[in-house]
Amino acid sequence: MKDDDKSKAQIEEALHKSEQQYRLISENASDFIYKMKIPEGIYEYASPSSLAVLGYSPQDLYQNPLYIQTIIHPDFRPYLQEQWQAILDGKEPKTFEYQVVDKEGNVRWLSQTNSYLKDETQRITHLIGIVRDVTDYKHTEEKLERQNRLFNTLLENLPVGVFMVESPTGKPLIANEQAKILLGRGILPDVTDVTLATVYEAYQYGADQPYPMHKMPIIRGMYGEKSHIDDMKVIRPDKTDVLLEIFGAPVYGKDNQVVMSLVSFVDITERKQAEIALQESTEKLSALFASMTEMVALHELVFDEQGAPVNYRITDCNRAYTQITGIHKETVVGRLATEVYGTPEAPYLQEYSRVAINGEPYYFETYFAPLDKHFSISVVSPAKNKFATVTADITAIKRVQQIIAAQNKELEQLVYIASHDLRSPLVNVDGYSRELEFELQELLDLLSAPNASPEALQRALNAKSLEIKEALSHIRSSARKMDALLKGLLKLSRNGRAALNIRPLDMTKLTADLLRTLDYQVKAAGAQIQIFPLPPCKGDETQLAQVFTNLIDNALKYRHPQRPALIAIRGSVENGRAIYCVEDNGIGIAKNHQEKIFELFHRLDPSKTEGEGLGLTIVRQALSRLDGEIRVESTPGEGSRFYISLPATGLPGIYPA
Ligand code: ADP
């Protein structure tokens, strides 16, 4: 074999080998590779896998090269025509993308990369095309783009500032509009201008103490840590400030490495102000609640299965509640009214449920016997089916009202006395003095008569002297009556102004002492007095001595003529009051007089006994000044019982025997 034959054979061999390798690659490639003769457009080679995806075989192409054109999507035909022309014109080959319709009618995306084969004269002889089905990629790309758009829209419309940096470089990636607004454009003018240092400065602005860089949420995110700052004050470049709540979080890549760090922040200035305002008003309210002298209690209604209110539960109460009722908060909160007050029905349920259901406030006054107190109760509803009661102890006011009423009555009586009782003696004085005047005039006329004789004058004088004496006697008795009335008024007034020394009194001893001073009268009346053990009370010794003296005095004075007088003094304690009873077996008092006997100068039978009709008026006056009361029960012909009530001291039922 010649040398050049040998080398030719070698070359051919090599060529064959390379062609085989090339074929092997192209036939096993997933891309569709073809070789086309130019300008004829005849396929000289088409790789087998090639158009299988589209449902065509290389044979289809060899037999009908135009086949490929029919599968091109009509929208791309003019475009591909242009590309084909560029190839024929020998223009620089390029990659183009277009759509085709596969055998089943599905639209698919192809991407085609072209290159030329040339002969020795550099003439383009063939086109090598590598076509790839990029449908999936295109779909992914579209999906990605849609997601990007969604992400961007979301980011720009969020009322939350978002800032993101790359990890580990710290290069800023994203800052949304809200981030720029919240931090101030001076800090985040454009994300590309921002460095971590400028953001760090922003944080620094507001912190009272320099905020450690490594604790910044954006930095912690780069280290894979989530973080949260409750509130951080940031002062913006324009000197306005904003309170931010900041959340930081890392963003992980596929290999679980942190690729980004993200912070989001919201403006909590208003929320904080509202929180502070709320806290302040809550504090004020609870201070008020605690310091109020009125009892305040909150309740909620309890309903039965039919939805009717049947009870209420106490949900809170203040200090005054405990002070007044002696019931501790811990023992009432959460419990039902019936349990707390030990009543079969919840007190004032009807009134309270009306308020809790309709929301209309209600006010009423009531007397609470177990505590012997008067209360005013304001009921308001803070929420549906709930109500609050503000209860004030108005016992003192009530007593003052009673005193004023009693004093008014007394005043009325005084006016009545002045106008009536004092008037009748005055009328007498006036009438008899007129008569005197008349008699005197007659005598003067007689004297001045020209023919008046001393004898006639003497006679006339004798005749008139009796009438004159009588008139003078009437005038004097009227004057005495007026004097007695005025003295009585004065006594009453003095008694009403006497200084009081109110203290606990041993009433058994007080009445026993009194009895000793009345010993003479008792014996003279042939009476018997029995004193039972009496409970102590709060009062003034002098005033109460006068009260009991008057009552015993009357019992002796108004004794029954047909039987020896029996007088008993008893006592008991009821509802925080000491009750005393002075009982006699005397003449008794008719029903229609029983209230009148306490009136000034009122006497039933003035002619029969001595008296001013002042004793019981003074008794009632003295008792009313001591927060006491008096009432009478009596049966004419049988006897009377005078009941006195006074504030008790000590324990109920325990008093010296
Ligand atoms: P006085 O005894 O000076 O008349 P009081 O004010 O003490 O004045 O009494 C008023 C009236 O009440 C008496 O006049 C009497 O008619 C009646 N009275 C008072 N106490 C009794 C009594 N124990 N029994 C019957 N009548 C009484």
Please tell me about this protein's structure.
- This protein has 657 residues and is an alpha+beta fold.
- It folds into 5 domains: 22-139, PAS domain (Beta-Lactamase, 2-Layer Sandwich); 158-273, PAS domain (Beta-Lactamase); 298-400, 2-Layer Sandwich (Beta-Lactamase), CATH 3.30.450; 416-495; 502-647, Histidine kinase-like ATPase, C-terminal domain (Heat Shock Protein 90).
- 44% of the residues lie in helices and 25% in strands.
- It contains 20 helices and 22 strands.
- Strands 2-1-5-4-3 form a 5-stranded antiparallel β-sheet, sandwiched between helices.
- Strand 14 (373-380) and strand 15 form a beta hairpin.
- Helix 15 (423-448) packs antiparallel against helix 16 and helix 19 packs antiparallel against helix 20 (615-625).
- Adenosine-5'-diphosphate binds next to helix 19 and helix 20.
- Residues 550, 554-555, 558, 584, 586-589, 597, 602-605, 611-617, 640 line the site of adenosine-5'-diphosphate.
